[in-house]
Write the structure tokens for this entry.
Amino acid sequence: MFQRSAAGYFDTDTFALLAPLAAAFYVVRSGPRDPIKAAAWLAAYPWLYNQGAPLGLALAVISGWLWRREPSALALLAASQVPLPPLVRVALVLVVALAWPRLASKIALPKRTTFIALGLVLAAVAIVLGPSIIAKLGYYLDPGATTTGSVAFGVSADFVSETRAQGFVDLAMRVAGAVPLFVVAMLGALLVALRYTRLVILLPVFGLGLFTVFGGARFTIYLVPAFAIGIAYLVTWLADRIAQRHARAAATIVFALGVCAPAAARDWVAYTRPPLINAEAQALDALRTKAPPDATTITWWDDGYPTLYFARTRTLIDGGRREAGVSLVAEMFMGSQRTARNLAALALTTQAEIPTDWAIAPTLF
């Protein structure tokens, strides 16, 4: 997922999934006796993906319930969710991990006290994040286009494929390539969760994946781990029924190829126009050789990343922006040359009108 289908198109999905899956891995593997790695990943999550704070909070809540009998683990979870900059929270987790043994030896804190303290921290974070969560839900659950007289109003989510609501069949085809395979994999994931209760930590991740039905294809990636875990469990279970070692290994390979076949066949016949053709890439490369290091290129929002990658200039609009900036750029492209020049100068010089986070520097993040 790091590169979509053309150089320069790096997606946030990589970062959106890395931290929660890493935290879940350490929760399942180490448990409350070695919680520092899971807590550190939860603390760093918003640094990797700045929209991930609600998911990180949900993972911390479930981890707190799983670790409710271990005060040291609860203290690290509380440190991971304090409303501070992410890297500061990571440092705080490390400080708490180093200081806790000495503190615990001097002050006998009841387990209930630590659990309540964690609950208060998580409640405070939930209050802080509440308005943004409600606003996001309102955006994705907006009923869409309405008509008043002869005028029709719509929302941008209805016109962008990744935010348009998907049906169950579309969801299953995107994840597995076949509806029956998707259903079987979800049953496998349920069996795994019943057998290994710590995997309940992944429920918020899978819940976001199911939100694809309402919120659009961009949430599909969150359901892929559930599909993978369920299928891996079932393939292993079937292969373990074969006693002979070499036959078991061969059967595992055959089962795995069979699982991948529907999606591979679907993608093989699908035609997707590349988001950037050679002539456009060459033009942007030529711009790189002529533009000064501090140049800024104003382009349409879905050409922001290729511009950043090939031209190596700053750009005001990236692939995730469909806000007021799009209207400004549209006005430049559709108006007169004088209007475009004046609006471009305004965008580059007036910080009061233009949010500073529009400009993205030529770095990974």
About this structure: The CA atoms of residues 32 and 67 lie 5 Å apart. Strands lie at 146-148, 151-153, 296-297, 314-315.
